[in-house]
Design brief:
It is a single chain. With 153 residues, the protein is of the alpha+beta class. The chain is built from four helices and eight strands, in the order αβαβββαβαβββ. Strands 2-3-4-1-5-8-7-6 form an eight-stranded mixed sheet. A hairpin with a 4-residue loop joins strand 6 and strand 7.
């Protein structure tokens, strides 16, 4: 199957919505200052994703998209390494998908490079996996499927 055919098949099977932009910060308290100044309130308390050695805080926008602040909880975490190499700033863009397993299968079939071959439990009751920036024009893309009970927000 050609790359284009695989991508067209992907579009027809799975729904995608913009979910959030992830921003790496040295500390949540420092990162929150700007968003609080704008009048945005955090939509919940911070949450730690132990497997990724990160603490996250979400800010909901009026259009149901969110801003996610990412604070490292360990010097050897991916976010700590990102901050050391690039400083605070945009880390990733997240797309909410209706079926993460099918999305990952289709991405693999299209020959695109993944950071994670299988989804893992991320923050906010979601299964997540990342597509490598080399496959996306330089942007780290998170695919996320809500697995909690009830409404995804």
């Amino acid at each position: 199957m050609s790359h284009e055919a695989a991508l067209n098949k992907l579009k027809n099977v799975i729904t995608f919505e913009f979910d959030h932009v992830g921003i790496a910060v040295n500390s949540l308290s420092e990162g929150q200052k700007f968003y609080s100044t704008l009048g945005l309130g955090a939509d919940s308390s911070s949450e730690e994703v132990t497997s990724e050695k990160v603490r996250v805080q979400m800010f909901e926008l009026a259009n149901s998209c969110r801003i996610e602040l990412l604070e490292p909880t360990s010097d050897d975490s991916t976010i700590a390494k990102f901050l050391k190499n690039r400083g605070p700033g945009i880390h990733h863009i997240c797309l909410r998908v209706s079926d993460i397993h099918t999305a990952l299968t289709r991405v693999k079939e299209a020959g695109l490079r993944l950071v994670h071959e299988k989804p893992f439990r991320g923050a906010h009751d979601c299964d997540v996996a990342f597509v490598h920036p080399a496959a996306t024009g330089g942007v780290l893309i998170e695919l996320s499927e809500y697995k909690g009970k009830g409404k995804s927000r």
